Amino acid sequence: MALEKIVITDTGGWALWKIEEDEETLQRMVGTVDELPPSIHNPKKRMEWFGGRVVVKTIMERLGLSFKGIVKDEFGKPFPKAHDFQLSLSHSYPYVGALIDREISVGIDLEQPQEKLLRVAPRVFHKDELTDAGHDIVKCCIYWCAKEALIKIYGKKDLTLAENLIISPFTRQNEGHILGKIIVKDIETIIPLYYIVYPNFVVVLNKRNAS
Q1: pTM of the model
Q2: Which stretches of the chain score pLDDT less than 70?
Q3: Per-residue CA distances from 136 to 53, 92, 118, 171, 172 (Å)
Q4: How far is it, in rounded angstroms, from Cα 197 to Cα 204?
C-alpha cells in the first residue's frame, strides 16, 4: 500500500492511500480486530474494507493510539472502537481515505472524476450548483465529494442532496476552500471544507483538519 498523504493535527489526523497489495497482505496488516462481513463478495470491495482499516490503524498509531477495530452506530456511521474519536472513511478503488478527530464530527470523501457525474448531477445538485459546475467533470466531482462529506458530518441518512446540502460557488483550483451548508428544518449549519485535486481523484474534507 502506497501512502499518498498523511496529516497529523492536534486533534486527530487524515491519510490517503493507494492499494497495491493483495487481499491476504491487507488482512495481515489489519490483524484480527475486525472480521470481514460475509456479505462483501466483490474482490475490490473486500480490499477497500481491509484498506480502510489499515489507513485508520496507521493514523491512530501516529497519534500514539492502539487500533482495536471499527464499530458503527444505528445510522451506519463508523467510530474507532474503544476510543472517543469521530471517524470518516471513503474509498474509490484503488484509493482509500480516512479522517479522525477527537472534538468534532468529520467527513471525508474521495471520488474519481467520471462522465457519469454529469448525468447524475441534475438529480442531486441545486440549480445554482449546476450552473456553476457546468460541464466541468472535475468541478462536478468536487461538488459531489463535498455533499458526501457533509452527509458524513451530519451522520444520518434523512437528507436530500439538492435541498439539504448546499455548496457555495467557487473557482476551481488544484486545491482550495469551499463552504458547505447543512439545512435541516430551516436551521443552517455552515461547514468550511477543503478540497484537493489529484491526477486521478478528488478529495474533500473538513477544512480544520486539512493542514
Answers
A1: 0.94
A2: 1
A3: 33, 20, 8, 12, 10
A4: 9
Instruction: Give the number of other CB atoms < 10 A from CB of residue 171.
Output: 8
**Where do we find the cell 474509498?**
91
Q: Residues 26, 109: contact at Cβ < 8 Å?
A: no
Question: Residue 146's pLDDT is what?
Answer: 97
Domain residue spans in the chain?
Answer: 2-106, 110-209
Same CATH topology for 2-106 and 110-209? yes
CATH number of 2-106: 3.90.470.20
Q: How is 113-172 classified by DSSP, letter by letter?
A: --THHHHHHHHHS-HHHHHHHTT-HHHHHHHHHHHHHHHHHH-SS---HHHHEEE-----
Q: Are strands 70-72 and 108-111 parallel, antiparallel or unpaired?
A: unpaired
* 210 Cβ contact partners less than 8 Å away, ≥ 6 residues apart: 7, 14, 194
Cβ neighbours of 61 (radius 10 Å):
11
- First and final C-alpha spacing in the chain: 23
Please tell us whether the domain made up of 110-209 is placed in CATH 3.40.630.30.
no
Instruction: Tell me what the pLDDT averaged over the chain comes to.
Output: 94
Locate the DSSP E strands across the chain. Answer: 2-8, 12-18, 70-72, 78-80, 86-92, 95-101, 108-111, 165-167, 175-184, 187-197, 202-206
**Beta-strand pair 78-80/175-184:** unpaired
Cα distance between residue 211 and residue 209, in whole Å: 6
Residue 146 and residue 193: Cα distance in Å, rounded? 7
